[in-house]
Amino acid sequence: MKTKFALTVNGAKQRVTAEPGTPLLYVLRNALKLTGPRFGCGLAQCGACAVLVDGKEVRSCVVPVDSMVGKKVVTIEGLPEVWAQQKGIAPNSQTLHPVQQAWIDEQTPKCGYCQSGMMIAAVDLLSKNPNPTVAEIKDAFTNTPPSPHLCRCGTYAAIIDAVQRAAKVMNSTGGPA
Amino acid sequence: MIRRTQGSEAQLTTRRDFVRAGGALFVSLAAPLGEAAQIVATATTPDPTLLASWLEIRHDNTILLRTGRTETGTGMSAFYAQTLAEELRVRPEVITLIMGDTDRTPDGGYSAGFLIGAANVRKVGAYTYQALLSLAAEQLQVPASSITITAGVAAGGGKSLSYGQLLEGRHLDLKIPVTGKPTGMDASFGWGVGGLMGYSVTGNPPVKPVSEYTVVGTSFPMPGIPDKVTGRTAWSCDVPVPGLEGNLLHARMIRPPTVGSTLITAGTVDKKRFPTARVIAKGNLVAVVSPDEWEAVTAARAFASSTKWTAWSGLPGSEQLTTTLRARDWGTPSTRGDATAVIAALAQAERTVSASFEQPYVRHAPIGPYVAVADVRRDGTVTVWTHSSQSQGLRAQIANTLSVPREKVVIRWLDHAGQYGRTTHSGDGAEGDAVILSQLTGQPVRVQWMLPEDMAWSTASPGWIADIKGGLDAQGRITAVESAFRSPHMMDARLLGAILGRMPTTTTKSGNWNAIEWPYDRIKTRFEAAYGMPNLAGEAAHGGLRGNIMRTPGHRQQNFVLESMINEAAALAGADPIQFRREHTTEPRLLELLDATAQAAGWEARPSPRPGAGKTGNAPLIGRGAGIIFRDNAYWVGIAEVEVTPATGVVRATRFTIGADVGKVINPRHLDRCMKSGAVMGLSEALKEEVTFDRERVTSTDWNRYKILTMQEMPELRVVQISRDDKGFGTGGEASNAVAPSAVVAAFFDATGIFPRRIPLTPNYVKALLNG
Nearest CA to B422 among B108, B111, B80? Predict the structure, then answer.
């Protein structure tokens, strides 16, 4: 039966009505119009739908909306605000999260379909390891459960470049709290 | 990365030549702004002979460029802007693009046909520049020859005017000469739809010399990237028009359980559990629709189990694929070359190399499964939001399937996951499902395929077998090559929805073609045969395993066979594989690229296999190998270094060096990105990819069963670029995937002394190969 849920998404309180078992992805995309996270496999096998839940990467295509109550969900649309809060600066439309800026500066996306999930994985990684080596980046994007982050265009080298660029910027500006 | 620049361009048309020959173009150069300048929003495609259809120079000095071709992810949206910016002498930042919309772009054509698209943009820009120059001469009251135009500002006689000022109250009433005809259904093409190339701009306007380029050759960013990383891009999986939403139905398709099953009875939806879901069926096209997407998903799952289909079992099973193909009577091939001369040369050869190669089905496997939104109105108008690589072709297909005039159909193109060729022939995809369901329900419908559905029902790149023979003379030079390639065809552009719904769709031909662009001018005697057949199990109700082209189509497969034979022949001749290639070409571009790439890879000249090569043990054996390809005015060299662990059968690429000479490099950074990412796709194909099926259905239907390369499996990548001012543009995206497989198997041979004649090099295959 459809139920009302109060969610915190990108810092804002949201009320949505959905079947309790509806995967978070469908709520984000259809009810909240947050189209950053994307449907890839629906099986937690590719990473295109990844979002941050309480700062950690979660595959939104399989987690039910009823398990998200009381948690903080962040999509790529909310990353600039995450960075602004982290740095204690007022959010503004010009300042992107360093990970997003690095994805632009390194021209990382090709088709770009998987890259929302890749950036979420990068933010998660850099929160745990502010200065990862190439081997550590490869390990994180491949061996972190539940599955490797897959890119069919093959942009892995560009992702590594962007993660390392973002790390440099974040470290030089004080790094994550 | 290593970059070199070479060459200078041949003589170009000057403005004086041009005015003398075609000055009439400028008669109605500037006219008051009026109705004629407006592109009226109808389903009609803008007239390609009008400049206003191609571009708009606005009074704020920004420029809108329209092309029917689309961004595949290789950076073309940047390259078109760069190409136009050169000719118009403006900064590329002032240019925005509309791509792929059939009602807003003039030329059609397929997305990967960038070279044709770029030539069009270059000429449109050049015609426009000449017109602007004439207009500036008139307004500045100085001769055109004394005007300089920089960053969109014309200066002469001590005065200057921007393009926006020049055109204030006017528009350029310029005719653009084109050849081509509207895209439509056309059975003379293998896939049943004409117009793949779109319109081509003709004539010979004075283009800017490549040596004077200031924007082409720089790493201008891809315009869509900021929106993609911030979540602002409108993707084809999003609900495209806000107004559509209130009435939109989400659909999930219920596909037959086997490749050949037909519907006996459709099940029912439990209205208590799924109050707003309902079933739509037509022929074997079955869907559950609901205003709520998750309800559509869950209702479809519940419904599928209560739906009855006939049993079917007619596939050979993927284990038996190549045996089955070998047992077939293939009929008459397409041929190229001189069979008699080859037979004579092979008879005189000192030694011969003879080998048979094979590969299973592989697939495009985008990260995003097919999705489309369609709105079919009662008045017969049809709008489809899609990521098809060929909008005008899809428009013709949709009109054909729904039996409505093409003028009633609008295709709107949006970003989505890379297609890698699967929609180039304007078919396949969710669009057929969506228009049929929208017509049946009278509502706009969004059809999202699920991953297992896409991996089972989308078209795939067919498995193949090939035989090749090379003859060597006493000096160890190849004198003749004979090859035969056999594969189900790669031309199935039918819309699955139309097949299942028993609606009109395209016809397909079952032939294949000889795809290699010959890189070895010193091997003059050759004979190639390409045999085709219908889809595997094509007699089944829905057309069997449907075959389609995939990135570097036909050429990728046939070149792997040729390059593998070259590597085997080099070993037979006791020659270093790079030097062996050098001895079979006089092409300076290829020779220079071979040397530069070998140097970047730290290549040491010696024959393969390496001293100490082996095929047993727990310790990794190392090897290196090379492969090349020549395609669309671009040379590519790949050098793979691998580790083979005989005990486990695991092959790991440790380093891959990729070199390209694509003529004039348009955008070094995006070429670098294309080279590296293409290498990853090629390594994935060489090491991992295989579509599996049993006698009833495809079984590799998720990412655990259709494996692609992960980030950890990516080797160190090295890149070599050579840019030439005198060779035009070459294809910088497509063929980068095609040099990896031949280099990888050669490296395996170098390590083990055993030459694999099949890809992918999976552990089971490798263990069998080393133990055999």
Answer: B111
Backbone phi, psi, residue B552, to 5°: 60, 55
Say if B362 is an interface residue toward chain A (CB within 8 Å).
no
Report the pLDDT averaged over residues B521-535: 98
Q: How far apart are CA B398 and CA B395, in angstroms?
A: 5
* pLDDT at position B120: 97
Q: Which of A43, A75, A107 is the last residue of a domain?
A: A75
What is the fold, at CATH topology level, of the domain defined by B574-771?
Aldehyde Oxidoreductase; domain 4 (3.30.365)
Q: What is the CATH number of the domain that holds A50?
A: 3.10.20.30
Count of domains observed in chain A: 2
Domain boundary residue, one of A47, A75, A103? A75
Please report, for residues B293, B383, B441, the alpha-carbon distance to residue B432 in angstroms, rounded to integers and kept in the order given.
19, 12, 14
Same domain, A62 and A111: no
Q: Which residue of B has its CA nearest to A81?
A: B230
The answer to whether A142 faces chain B, any CB pair under 8 Å, is yes
Q: How far apart are CA B169 and CA B379, in angstroms?
A: 38
Q: Which CATH class is domain B12-222?
A: alpha beta
ipTM of the complex: 0.97
Cis upstream peptide for B32 (omega within 30°)? no
CA-nearest residue to A157 within chain B is B676
Q: For residues B343 and B356, what is the distance between their CA atoms, to the nearest angstrom?
A: 18
User: By three-state DSSP, how is residue B666 classified?
Assistant: coil
Question: For B510, how many CA atoms within 13 A lie in the half-sphere containing its CB?
Answer: 17
Q: Which helix (H) or strand (E) holds B83?
A: helix B76-88
Provide the domain limits for residue A61: 3-75
CATH 2.40.160.20 fits B242-311+370-448, yes or no: no
**What dihedral angle (degrees, nearest 10) is formed by the CA atoms of B109, B114, B117, B118?**
180
Are residues A159 and A109 both part of a single domain? yes
Query: How much is the pTM?
Result: 0.96
Using CB atoms, pick whichever of A36, A113, A137 lies closest to residue B417.
Answer: A113
Show the tokens assigned to B187: 């059975």
Asked if the model's pLDDT at residue B35 lies above 60, the reply is no
CATH number, domain of A93, equals 1.10.150.120
A29–chain B Cβ distance below 8 A for any pair: yes
Per the domain annotation, does A144 fall within a domain? yes
Contacts of B715 in chain A (CB under 8 A): none
Is the CB of B241 inside 8 Å of chain A's CB atoms? no
State the CB neighbour count (10 A cutoff) for residue B445. 28
Structure tokens at B237: 């999986």
Q: Does A77 touch chain B (CB under 8 A)?
A: yes
Query: CB neighbours of B351 closer than 8 A, spacing ≥ 6?
Result: B471, B472, B572
Pick among B77, B227, B230, B737 to test the A interface (most A CBs inside 10 A): B230
Which helix (DSSP H) or strand (DSSP E) does residue B124 occupy? helix B114-140
Query: Which residue did the predictor score with more confidence, B490 or B41?
Result: B490
Print the SS3 string covering B629-652: EEECCEEEEEEEEEEEECCCCEEE
Give domain status of residue A177, yes or no.
Answer: no
Place of tokens 């770029």: B118
Cα B488 to the center of its chain, rounded Å: 19
Per-residue confidence band for A90, with pLDDT thresholds at 50, 70 and 90? confident
Q: What are the tokens at A65?
A: 């909306």
* A163 plus A89 within the same structural domain: yes
Residues of B in contact with A156 (CB under 8 A): 677, 680, 711, 714
Q: What's the sign of the alpha-carbon dihedral B64, B68, B69, B71?
A: positive
Query: Which residue(s) pair with B148 in the sheet?
Result: B155
